[in-house]
Each structure stands twice: as structure tokens, then as C-alpha cells.
Amino acid sequence: MKKIENKIYPVLNMHCAGCANNVEKTVNALPGVEKGAVNLAANTLSIEFDRLVLSPESLQKAIHDAGYDLIIEEENAAELQEEEQRKAYKKLKMKVVWAWIFVVPMMTLSMLFMHLPHVHVIMLVLALPVMLFFGNSFYINAWKQLKLGRSNMDTLVALSTSIAFLFSVFNTFFPEFWTSRGLEPHVYYEAATMIIAFVLIGKLLEEKAKGNTSSAIKKLMGLQPKTARIIKDGAEETVLISQLQVNDLVSVRPGEQIPVDGTVHEGTSFVDESMITGEPIAVEKSVGAQVLAGTINQKGAFVLKAAKVGKETVLANIIRMVQEAQGSKAPVQRIVDRVTGIFVPVVLVLSILTFVIWMSVGGMGYFSHALLSAVSVLVIACPCALGLATPTALMVGIGKGASNHILIKDAVALEQMRKVNTVVLDKTGTLTEGHPSVSDWLWEHGEDKLFKEILLAAELKSEHPLADAIVNELQSQGIASATLSSFESITGKGIQVNYQKTTYWAGSQKLLNDYEASASAYLQGMIEQFQNEGKSIVYFGRENKLLSVIAITDKVKPTSIEALRVLREMGIRVCMLTGDGEATAAVVAEKLGIGNYKAEALPSDKEEFVKQLQSEGRVVAMVGDGINDSQALARADVSIAMGKGTDIAMDVAMVTLITSDLMLLPKAFKLSKQTVQLIHQNLFWAFIYNLIGIPIAAGVLYAMGGMLLNPMIASAAMACSSVSVVMNSLSLNWKKL
Q1: Alpha-carbon gap, residue 668 to 149, rounded angstroms
Q2: End-to-end CA distance of the chain
């Protein structure tokens, strides 16, 4: 028996793509781990593991032994990570300042005062603090990786700077070794320390920029209040959110954020729910109304009864979903992971090869050239730019989606959406407002209160959107529900119940046909009229007799026509599926300009429709409510659920549009294209940077114009490459959807 858990843990002390790969390898080698993935941009580990085999403490120890750290506290993990990162950033900033305090005078000495007595000793004294204190993390981390038989960016920095430094120390105390051979004993203290100073600056800028990529998550988390006031024995008591329990009574005052999901127990107010629904108009809340955590109470004060607390609230689920999506990997990242996995060893080989070639060409007279070139190769090679290219773009893209009420479940969905060329939409609640109401009600042999009571009892148990319209109509008439002896939902057709040994049913034309019931000429004429008006028809009968016909209207959303027009302009074909009759479906399709649709569609028919489109070579996105359309959603290349806060079908669809505005659909496709384009840009520049930079560092330009790349310039270029990738990813925030 396994006890599989999915967790996201913050990881500390990662510096580059090599670090992320090392953590990932360490985690995936542990017993009980099903899958582990590290996001360098977010500094998180997404892990699926067997709790009976591996404990969080054991996981933490394994990562600590590998040279990193893990936050396993779940209550305030984000706050702890932010606090640790803030401390690390402050410490890094101090290291940068102090490193440059020592580096600047060293540079001055090397450029202007190289002929002063004992200048090499003075430079050595200035270099030691930079090497031992401000740059010590590079050597400590490199040593930890060496003990594990691994390598990362710290390995490259430690190796390059220590070679330059030790060579300089040797030349400081044993200059005669070179002078006796007619060569000058050069020192490179300024190069070794400048490399450290530039890399530290790069890390500082990178950490600052990376912090901005998670701004969407921080904004969402900022919607969660820290405390709440519960009512006990008639008195108010302030407690932490984590202490709230289901059924607690919570007092909410004007202007405050609602702390938990629940129902209004006492009082009335107007609540701003725009962070969930996107609707700017405040919604009136009275006793029994549902309220959601993070929404803002505006005018009145009220008491709510907690229904969902902590990680169960809608807001907490949204935050969790965004975090998981940002931690997921796009397919293209697998290629990058393989490259970064062998990157450092390959660079080490290239550096040695550079040294050997220089020495082979020029002998001992070219020793300085050989050493400088080998060091430059180590310094300029940057796995960070490659490692950050994909996750930073994904974090910004998924975060931007969340800010625009588009929840993307994983990176695969984000990458796949750009390929979609056909969208299949469910009608009710997707193209229409999803607030159906009864417009006409005709009886075959006159009204009967008992029949209404039976129908109310039946529809109260139904999950179909049209059932709500019938329930609301009957309850407004003061009808009470009957007591049924059985209830059965007939998929795609309707419902069947038993009352006092008699079968009653309500549903579509298909259910009417199954019972071989027929409508009178008058009713048939009215049915055709209702269908021509685009109304949905529900048939209600007993045994093989039709009792009544109910016409239900559901207005087309004002944004649906415009959204479909934009989709067509994007080259996307639009189709519609509905369980309504042919006549009703045709009217709605004509109104929306949809040429390809299927009426009277059962769940299996919807899936078959999607399969047919795929067999024609089309990449299909299915848009539905995540319940009635589950088969089609599962079959589609991209599944998209329409949601309204508590109705979000997060577990069904790859993408959830939180609000009822269908204009979010073209925005989602546009966001996908922008994000993937950004990933490709980042990867292109990261690869090109290394492909061009490494040969230049090795000295290919020396034969043309006598130019050698100084290691200091190489270190500055390396620092800029990572920062430029992150900044390019952040540019997505300024692009219009």
C-alpha cells in the first residue's frame, strides 16, 4: 500500500542550472520518490513521493548533504522562503560592496603602479579577503559538488579564479622561475578577484530580477488575510487564519478582506468579488449567501459561518494551482536539462583543450596566453542562461495568466495551446450566460400540483444546468417537493424517478423517444416555435405519457460573438456541441456564425466529435464545464473549463477561465504564443551566447588581430547573459493580450 503525496517545497542555496540538476538527481535517486522536478526560477521542488517510504525530514537531509537546503514547514513555507531569500540577498549585496572596495584599488595598482616595489605582495594582500571571504561560497559549493562527483557553475568560477590566483602567488614568490627563461612573471590577482566581483554582481541582479517573476503569486498571496476575528461566547477574539475551524463564526467589518470561504450567518453587505469573478460591480450578500476568502467586504458588517478553511478555500486552490503550474516543465525543457547536465564537464574539457592547443602552438612562451584563454573559457561559459530560459518565461506567462483570470494547470498546456487550430465549445454556460430561466410551460392535460411536486423533487437531485431553471420556477410558485422512492440520472438524456410505484421522467427529445411518448399537434406546433426562437425544450412525462413541455431560455453572452470573431481572425476554426434539439442548436449556431455544430449530443457523441476532428489532423481545444463534457475534455489536445469561482473544474481541465467572459479564450491562446515565443528567444540567445563566447574566449580571434579576451570581460559577459534572459522574460508583463 502506497501513500502518494504531491508537495511543493522551497529550495535554498541554488545558484545555477547545474544546482537545479544536482538537486533533481539527488531527489529522484531517493527511495519512494515517484517524480521530482526543480524550478530554478522559482527556487522550488515539486515532488511526488510515497510518505510511507520517505519522510520530509529524510528528504531535507538528503538535499542538505548535497549542499543545498529545503524548507519543509508547510504552514508558512512561502514566508520562510521569502525571509531566507531576503537575508541571502542582503548578505550578497554586502559581499558585492566589499568585494569592489578591494577590487578597485587592485585594478588601479595593476594599471598604473605595476612598477612600485612589492606591488605584487600588496595586490596579494588585497586579493586574499575577496578570495577567502567574499567569494568563499564558490569554493565551498564547488568542494561539496566535487565530493558527490558533480559540478555546477560554482565549479567553473572556483576553478578559474583559483588557477589565476595560485599562478599569481607562485609568480609573486618565485619570479626567477620565469625570468631565468627570459619570460616575464605576470600576476593575475585583479583578474581572479574581478571575476568574483562581476559574478557576484550578476547573481545580485539575477536574484532581483527572479524575484519579479513570481510577482503574480505574491499578489495572490497578498489577498489572504493573516488574522480573523471569531465570535466565542458572544465576544470577538482575534486569531491566526491557520487556527480557524469549519463552522466557526467569523466577524467581518467594512473594508476588510474575507478570511475564509463560508456563508453569511448574520447581517448584509456588498462584497467586491472582482479578484475571483472579474466583475467590477459589488455583489449584495444576505443571510445564506456564499462568500469567498480574499474578496473584499465593502459597506456592511456581517458574520459568516466558515465552510472551507486553510488550503481548502477557492483562493488557496488557485494559488496552489498556479504554483504547481509554474513548477512544471515544458517539453522543450527536457532538451535543455540534458544539455545543462553535461554542460560543465564539456566546458572543463574545452578549457583543458584550449590550454593544450596554445602550449602546442607556442610552447612556454605562450604560457600566459594559454592560461588566460583557459580561464576565460571557464568564466564565460554560463549554464545559468540556459537553465533560466524556460522556467522564467513560464513563471511570468503563467503568472500573467492568473492575473488575467486564466489559470493554466501546467507548462505542457501552455506550450500546446499555441498549436490549436480548432476550438469546440459546449453551448450552455460557455456560449450562453449559464443562467437559464423558464420562459414557457405548456401542459398536455392541464396543470397538476402533485406533478409539479414530483418534478421539483426530481430536478433538485439533477446536476444539469437546465434543472436550476425549473427548480427556481417551481420554488417561486411555492411548490414543495414530494418524497421519491428512487432517482436515476440517464447520461445525456435526463432523469428518471419513482413515486408510489409509478415512473416519472424529465429530459430531452431522446428520452421522450425512449418512452415512446408523443405530443399533441398543438404542443408539437408550440415546440417548433420555441425551437425556432432558440429555446431549449425539457419534456416531462409519466410512463409513456407526455405531461408537459417546458421551454427554457439562456441568453447568448454579449462577449461570445466578439470572442468567436477574434478566434476566427487568429485562424482558429470554431465548432459547437449541445444536447439541445437540432432546431434550437441551428438558431444559436446561426446567431453566433458557427457553421459546424452537433445537436442532441450525448457525452460519447461529444468525444467522438473531437476524435473525428483529430483524425482530420486538427489540433483541438475543447471548452466546457468540466462535468457533462468530461469525456470530450479528456480526449481533446487542450481542455479548457469555464468557471465562476467555486465552480472551477480544476481537476478536469488543463486550463480554467475563472470568469464567464469568453474573451478570455483568445487571450489564453495569445498568451500561449507570446510565452512560447519568449522561450525560443531565450534559448536562442543562451545557446548563441555560449556558441560565440566560448570560441572567442579560447582565442580564435588572436590569429586575426592579436586579440585575446580578458577573463574580467568574460566574467562581466557571463553575468549579463543570465540577467538579460530574466529581463527578456519579464518583458512579457508589458505585452498586451
Answers
A1: 44
A2: 47
Distance CA 540, CA 470 (A): 11
Burial of 662: CB neighbours in 10 Å, binned 0-12, 13-18, 19+: buried
Distance CA 144, CA 154 (A): 10
Would you put residue 615 in left (φ > 0), alpha (ψ -120 to 50) or beta?
Answer: alpha
Closest CA to 202 of 680, 688, 686, 714: 714
Task: Give the containing element (helix H, strand E) for 522.
Answer: helix 521-532
* Position 202 confidence tier, pLDDT thresholds 50, 70, 90: confident
Chain center to CA of 353: 42
Task: Round to whole Å and give the CA distance between 95 and 133.
Answer: 8
Q: Between these two residues, 576 and 313, which has the higher pLDDT value?
A: 576
- Residues of 163-200 as b/e, b for ≥16 C-beta within 10 angstroms? bbbebbbebbeebeebeeeeeebbbbbbbbbbbbbbbb
- Taking 80 as the threshold, does the pLDDT of residue 18 lie above it? no
DSSP assignments along 37-86, one per residue: EEETTTTEEEEEEETTT--HHHHHHHHHHTT-EE---STTHHHHHHHHHH
Angle between helices 367-380 and 153-173 (to 10 degrees): 150
Give pTM, 2 decimals: 0.72
pLDDT at 647: 47
pLDDT digit string, tens, across residues 598-615? 888 877 888 899 999 999
β-sheet with 655-657: strand ranges across = 406-408, 655-657, 638-642, 620-624, 422-426, 573-577, 596-598
Q: 620-624 and 638-642: which strand pairing?
A: parallel
**Distance (Å, whole) CA 726 – CA 212:** 9
Q: Which pLDDT belongs to residue 271?
A: 87
Q: Which of 422, 425, 426, 424 is nearest to 619 (CA)?
A: 422
Give the whole-angstrom CA distance, residue 476 versus residue 470: 10
Q: Which of 395, 239, 426 is nearest to 325 (CA)?
A: 395
Rg (CA), the chain: 33
What is residue 227's three-state secondary structure?
A: strand
Angle, helices 215-222 vs 189-213, to 10°: value is 50
Return the bridge partners of 227, or none. Answer: 240
**Cβ atoms within 10 Å, residue 148:** 13
Q: Is 548 helix (H, G, I), strand (E, B) or coil?
A: strand
Whether 218 has a pLDDT exceeding 70, the answer reads: no
Burial zone of 573 (CB within 10 Å; 0-12 exposed, 13-18 middle, 19+ buried)? middle
Chain-centroid distance of CA 146 in Å reads: 34
Q: Name the least confident of 63-77, 245-259, 471-485.
A: 63-77
Beta-bridged to residue 48, according to DSSP, are 6, 35
* Residue range 311-335: mean pLDDT, rounded: 73
Longest dimension (CA), the chain: 121
Q: Does residue 646 carry a pLDDT above 60?
A: no
Q: Is 233 a catalytic residue?
A: no
Question: Which residue of the set 337, 426, 637, 661 is catalytic?
Answer: 426
The pLDDT-based confidence of 667 (bands split at 50, 70, 90) is very high
Task: Give the chain's length.
Answer: 737
Relative to beta strand 536-542, strand 502-507 is antiparallel
Total Cβ atoms within 10 A of residue 608:
16
- Non-local (6+) Cβ contacts of 181 within 8 A are 364
From the number of C-beta atoms within 10 Å of its C-beta (0-12, 13-18, 19+), residue 37 rates as buried
Grouping H, G, I as helix, E, B as strand and the rest as coil, residue 508 is: coil
Tell the residue number behind the cell numbers 525571509, with chain if given: 83
Nearest to 623 by CA among 675, 673, 572: 572
Instruction: Give the whole-angstrom CA distance, residue 546 versus residue 714.
Output: 84
Report whether 572 contacts 422 (CB < 8 A): yes
| b/e 312-339 (16+ beta carbons within 10 angstroms → b) | ebbbbbbbebbbbbbbbbbebbeebbeb
CB 400 within 8 A of CB 216: yes
